[in-house]
Design brief:
Layout lengths: L8 H9 L18 H8 L9 E9 L7 E12 L5 E7 L11 E4 L4 H17 L3 H13 L4 E9 L2 E10 L18 E6 L7 E7 L10 E5 L12
Antiparallel strand pairs: 1-2, 1-9, 2-3, 3-4, 5-6, 6-7, 7-8, 8-9
Length: 234
């Protein structure tokens, strides 16, 4: 069960990704090195260069077990702190699609990542019958893997090319239970971040190698970004 009574955005996101009752979500450096993916998405201070403002993200859901739809998410940066954290208020999607995320004091990472993953995990549960803890654990383990796919990219933000970093994980490809997830076993999660973008998250999207009648892909991109750079190319 995800606990949201946390002051740190890092704590909220990491607890969301942990399997229930498994202890620490990201190992300490003494036990295992923290990967670049973990640091980039959870430990870096995403709001260190983001002043008081409202960030808007555009969300698109392909047809899955429900009709395709478009929606939006917002992050209200209420206060930037001297230590690089920020007080933020998040609204992730609307009406029946909304994912509740409480206001966070001293946020380190961008809670838009939490909203996207929790929305996707709920969808995967509906489509496959698997448990939310199973999907959280697989995502957590994939981000902690030593061979996470990372590459430098250029992205278009407000009509300017800015440098970014693309992180791709395949949470279910090495899972012994992958046959139970067909056709989602090869599903990838792609995170694109950039220090030139407020809140550092440029876009997040999912993609599957084999297109099916229930495509289930979704994407989220900051307003001012180029949606063509953040979507499946199946």
């Amino acid at each position: 069960m995800m606990r949201l009574k946390m002051k740190s955005c890092r704590g909220v996101i990491l607890i969301a990704l942990a399997a229930a009752g498994t202890g620490p979500t990201i190992p300490t450096a003494a036990a295992q090195d923290i990967t670049i993916a973990e640091r980039t998405l959870f430990l870096d201070k995403h709001f260190s260069s983001t002043g008081k403002q409202k960030l808007t993200y555009l969300f698109h859901q392909e047809t899955s077990d429900i009709p395709a739809f478009d929606d939006k998410a917002t992050i209200e940066v209420d206060e930037q702190r001297p230590d690089g954290t920020a007080s933020v208020t998040t609204e992730f999607l609307s009406d029946q699609h909304a994912i509740p995320i409480p206001p966070i004091e001293g946020a380190t990472g961008n809670p838009i990542i939490l909203g996207f993953l929790e929305n996707d995990i709920a969808k995967m549960k509906r489509l496959t019958g698997g448990s939310v803890n199973y999907f959280r654990k697989r995502i957590r383990l994939a981000l902690a893997a030593a061979d996470v796919r990372i590459r430098h990219v250029l992205v278009d933000y407000n009509s300017q090319a800015v440098p970014g970093q693309e992180i791709t994980i395949f949470p279910y490809s090495e899972d012994p239970q992958r046959q139970r997830l067909t056709p989602y076993a090869e599903k990838a999660y792609v995170f694109v971040t950039s220090g030139a973008v407020p809140g550092k998250v440029y876009c997040i999207y999912t993609t599957m190698n084999n297109k099916t009648d229930q495509a289930a892909d979704s994407s989220l991109i900051i307003a001012g970004g180029d949606p063509k750079q953040c979507k499946s190319e199946n």
